[in-house]
C-alpha cells in the first residue's frame, strides 16, 4: 500500500512511500489486540483499594446475644459483617494487576492495530519537522493543513522532541509520542495516525 508524503503546509511533496505489508497489511488478530489492551489497562491500575475486615474494626469483642433462639442470624460481636459498621467480609485488598504477555503477542497486536488504521485510510505521512520553540499555534496550523484537526490525533515521532510535545500538550484530543512508546491502545483510540518519515522507518525496524 502506497501513501503520499506531505509537508507541514499540507502540500503533497509528489513522493510516495510504501507501507510495509508485514506490518500494515497483515490479517488482524482481534484476540491479540484484546490481550494487549487488557494488559495496558491492567498496568495502569494502582491496585490500592482496601476495606477493613472484622479484625481491623475498632469495637467491643463482647458477644451480642445468645447463639441460638434469637430468631435471627448468629452474630458474634459488633464487628460482625452482618451489622452496619462491621467489617467487610472478603473485601478488596491491595494487589498488583499487571500480568505477563509474550513479546510476539504484543507485536502481533500492534501490527493488527496499524493494519486496521491502514485499511481505514487513517494514516498520514508527513516530512520530518521540528520547532525551535514550543508554539501551540504552529502545531494547530500543521493539523489544519493536514486536514486532521477535527479528529482525535496521534502523532508519532522517531525520537523525543520536547518543543513539539509541549506545542501539542494543551490541545484536546491530540497526543504526541515516540515510536518506542507506540502501543495498541493508543493506536486504536486515535481517529487518525500521523507518522513522520523517520518514525515510519523506525517502526519497520522495531516490528519486523
From TrEMBL:
Keywords: Ribonucleoprotein, Ribosomal protein, RNA-binding, rRNA-binding. Residues 43-78 are annotated as: Disordered. InterPro entries: Ribosomal_uL4, Ribosomal_uL4-like, Ribosomal_uL4_dom_sf. GO terms for biological process: translation. Residues 43-52 have a biased composition (Basic residues). Belongs to the universal ribosomal protein uL4 family. Part of the 50S ribosomal subunit. This is Large ribosomal subunit protein uL4. The gene is rplD.
